[in-house]
Amino acid sequence: MRIYNLFPLLAGRFNDWHPHLERAASMCFDWVFTNPVQEPGISGSLYSIKDYLRFNPLLVDEGSGVPPKEQLKSAMGQANRLGLSMMTDLVINHCAVDSPLVNEHPEWFRRDKSGKVRVPVVETSGKEREKVVYPHAGRPRWLNGP
């Protein structure tokens, strides 16, 4: 497996991905990995997803008349025709502080004394990380290693 990282903000809109996919195929990659393509939150980080069901507006050609999902499907079809498989980063362990999920599922989030959602940070202690990331369920078995 040889993986090419197509960084969406550098590659541009879905409709502009074709030359990047051609380059990946010409370099003998067989997979293309994309960083998240969902709508980001206020920070703008691709990994701080606001809405998991909407695409990042910077990647969509609004003037094309083609729905965003079809634009992405077209790029994926181009990749497949070039012999490339596609994968993306699935960010499900956190979301943007301005995500609708914050209000829809307040029990999923830890808050500070003022009631604001705590922004996740890297913890140095495994026990502290467990408290921040897994406050209700305890440590998942898969984190314990083989």
Number of domains: 2
For this structure, the CATH topology of the largest domain is: Transcription Regulator spoIIAA
CATH top level label of the largest domain: Alpha Beta
Can you give the mean pLDDT? 86
Taken as a percent bin, the fraction of beta residues is 15-25%
Summarize the topology:
Elements (H helix, E strand, L loop, with lengths): L2 E4 L1 H4 L6 H9 L4 E4 L3 E3 L8 E7 L12 H14 L3 E4 L12 H4 L21 H8 L13
Parallel strand pairs: 1-2, 2-5
Antiparallel strand pairs: 3-4
Q: What does the model show?
A:
The strands form 2 sheets. This protein has a 3-stranded parallel β-sheet. The chain is elongated, with a radius of gyration of 18 Å. The chain has 2 domains: 3-88, 2-Layer Sandwich (Transcription Regulator spoIIAA), CATH 3.30.750; 110-144, no CATH class. β3 and β4 (49-55) form a beta hairpin. It has 5 helices and 5 strands; from the N terminus they run βααβββαβαα. 27% of the residues lie in helices and 15% in strands. It has helices spanning 8-11, 18-26, 68-81, 101-104, 126-133; strands spanning 3-6, 31-34, 38-40, 49-55, 85-88. It is of the alpha/beta class and 146 residues long.
